[in-house]
Design a protein that fits this description.
- The structure is a single chain.
- The chain has helices at 3-16, 39-42, 190-197, 218-227, 233-237, 255-259, 310-314, 329-339, and strands at residues 48-50, 53-55, 64-72, 75-82, 85-87, 101-103, 108-114, 124-132, 135-147, 154-155, 160-164, 178-185, 213-215, 244-248, 274-279, 285-291, 299-303, 318-319, 326-327.
- The chain is globular and about 65 Å long.
- Helices cover 18% and strands 30% of the residues.
- The strands form 5 sheets. Strands 5, 6, 7, 8, 9, 10, 11, 12 and 13 form a 9-stranded antiparallel sheet that branches.
- It has 342 residues and is of the alpha+beta class.
- The protein binds zinc ion.
- Zinc ion binds at residues 82, 84, 86, 179.
Amino acid sequence: MQLRAIIPAISFLGAALGRAEPLNLALPTDNDALLRGDGPAFYQYIEREYHGEKSTPWEGGRYGFVRNPVETAAGIIYSRLHEGIDIKPLQRDASGEPLDVVRAIAPGVVVHANQMAGWSNYGRYVVVEHRFDGCKYYSLYGHLSSISVHEGQRVQQRDQLGVMGHTGEGLNQARAHVHLELNLMLSRQFESWHEASFKNDPNRHGLYNGLNLVGIDIARLYLALQKQPALTIPEFLAEEETLYRVMLPPSKKFDLAKFYPWMVRDKSVGEPASWEVSFNRAGVPLKIQASAKPVAEPELSYLKPGSVDGGTLTMDRIAGRGANARLTEKGKQFMRLLVFPD
Ligand SMILES: [Zn+2]
């Protein structure tokens, strides 16, 4: 048997024995400064204006709540989520255009290639579907200048997807980068939910619209894998802190529980009255628990106590704090996606 044939055979055997396969993620470009702890060399800066003062912090290229600072009783809080990481180019041509090749971080299938730069904030972007331990995850590569793959194409790790660029919203040539996400998918009913929710805003990306994809902390994941190559995504997400929990009415279309069965606790309970989903601050679902309390629509059941208003913490999905906290209309609408159309 040739090596090419042996590797899939070993992977298959591993899966059959119920053993987790190592994630083995590659970086999408040759810029590997992240792994050396060199943030300024790895991340593309953002342009910030705060209290009339302009700055270009590289920290704004990191994953998480790194944008739009606001003053609160608890100090400065960053209120806008960046669901991925912005990786700087290493090479530019004489006119300043980035030349870095963008590659698949793991083997998979290209499920979306948006060639129309004006159709998305991501500009030209590619989504690759991966299977890790039997569950599907989606890497997304945004702001490309060109795309060299097509939907349905199978790619190996490090295969070229396109070239880095600065297409999409709010970018210029100096800030060219690839925006990289690693996502969970929320629902297969996304398209009908989107149509019902945003009548005047066509969805041109099918299931691979950013609203249906929730990015995990991919930079922390790369660093964790350096130390612990056998780490799995469920183990990685087990470290994340729950900020809030939402009760959802039961639904046959609750895809999240089907996509990621490892999230579901209390599997023995038959038909629960509702499902309670735990989320971290970035809105990543972490845990699904059966509950005996019936609810007619999505309802907040917990918000971590603190002095900061829920709106600032959750980009207005939650309003208020403590016992007075509740889902906003925006929050409810988003949560309905998880159980749409029931
Ligand atoms: Zn970005």
